[in-house]
Amino acid sequence: AVETLSHMRPLRGEKLMIVSNGAAPAALALDELWLRNGKLATLGEETLQRLRDALPGSVVPDNPLDLRDDASSDRYIKAITILLDSQDFDALMIIHSPSAVAPGSESARALIEAVRKHPRGKYVTLLTNWCGEFSSQEARRLFSEAGLPTYRTPEGTITAFMHMVEYRRNQKQLRETPALPGNLTANSVDVHRLLQQAIEEGATSLDTHEVQPILGSYGMQTLPTWIAGDSAEAVHIAEQIGYPVALKLRSPDIPHKSDVQGVMLYLRTATEVQQAADAIIDRVKMTWPQARIHGLLVQSMANRAGAQELRVVVEHDPVFGPLIMLGEGGVEWRPEEQAVVALPPLNMNLARYLIIQAIKSKKIRGRSALRPLDIAGLSQFLVKVSNLIVDCAEIQRLDIHPLPASGNEFTALDVTLD
């Protein structure tokens, strides 16, 4: 992120041109570009003919442009100069693999000088990937000093490019008249008061029960939750709210309740509730004796038949700030593989785009639910999350999981706020 923000020039479009001295690294870059729904530039006939005239017959003018593994720095510069003369692409990615014919630092110096001298050099969005962790250290230093972004892998280079593409798309949509739902509610004064009170009390993490009024102030529904100090109180609450119920461990020292089997669902009798409550507490004392136990959360069982289980997470990046991530639920959460990411603030257009992106990239899979996913309703939910995060800088992390989506109903069952 630092490399991208500090060195990459703003994008004027999304079409990428790839130049490499080997088919394998170019293929890795291309696979990652397709995976992230990127766009490859198409070279015009004039550019193709100039490349044919300037390069050996073994080089086929195309995109990616494979200069072959015997490419010298001179061959690189000929190709890149012709490409810089054209208007066929919006960003240029140059890959170099270690070669006896063209050492990495020599090729890097030649490229830096060629870009510096070319009339369009200062305006072109350029990304470099000099492969080889140790052999390319000098080249990467030269690029950094020259103000050109450089990355260690083809995939990492594409990831950086697509981050800028997403940023450009978001900025474009934000310049439009923001589409915001008319029924948004937000009471930031009350939320700031609740967060400040928690900070003064030394709390670093809030659970579902404590987060209820915070989300509620921004129009988000959570499943009603009660706190029981022991199994007897859990039974009493269950009798009051009706069966079946769910019991969940309440401990600031155990972030993942499933690690100690701290969640018990579909408890239908007082005996089941008492046994489950005692079992949860006993397991914690045996397997995690140092953990503080602040009782149990008691909830009515939500009707999740036919619902799609989603997860919405907000985390802070040291450079970009808050990131809103959307994906499916599950015990194992790998956001780089299972979620799409957006930068707040979100309006309805941006939220809808994020959801469509999640569906197209199969981060949210198609399901035969009783009622189909309400994209407008989920967009509205994401806008509310965005408004909360923008208004409340105290929030460092928010994890809403599971978030069952059934028709236009979005009720958070479990929430953690740091």
Structure explained in plain terms:
By secondary structure, this protein is of the alpha/beta class. It folds into three domains: 2-174, Succinyl-CoA synthetase domains (Rossmann fold, 3-Layer(aba) Sandwich); 224-301, ATP-grasp fold, A domain (Dna Ligase, domain 1), CATH 3.30.1490; 308-417, ATP-grasp fold, B domain (D-amino Acid Aminotransferase, Chain A, domain 1, 2-Layer Sandwich), CATH 3.30.470. Helix content is 41%, strand content 20%. The protein has 14 helices and 17 strands. The protein has helices at residues 2-7, 23-35, 45-54, 73-85, 104-117, 137-146, 154-174, 188-200, 208-216, 231-241, 270-287, 335-338, 348-360, 375-391; strands spanning 15-20, 39-40, 65-66, 91-96, 125-130, 150-151, 221-222, 225-228, 245-249, 263-267, 296-300, 308-317, 321-328, 339-342, 398-406, 409-412, 415-417. The strands form three sheets. Strands 7, 12, 13, 14, 15, 16 and 17 form a seven-stranded mixed β-sheet that branches. Strand 4 (91-96), helix 5 and strand 5 form a beta-alpha-beta unit. The chain starts with a helix and ends with a strand. Pfam families: ATP-grasp_5. GO terms for molecular function: ATP binding; ligase activity. Keywords: Ligase.
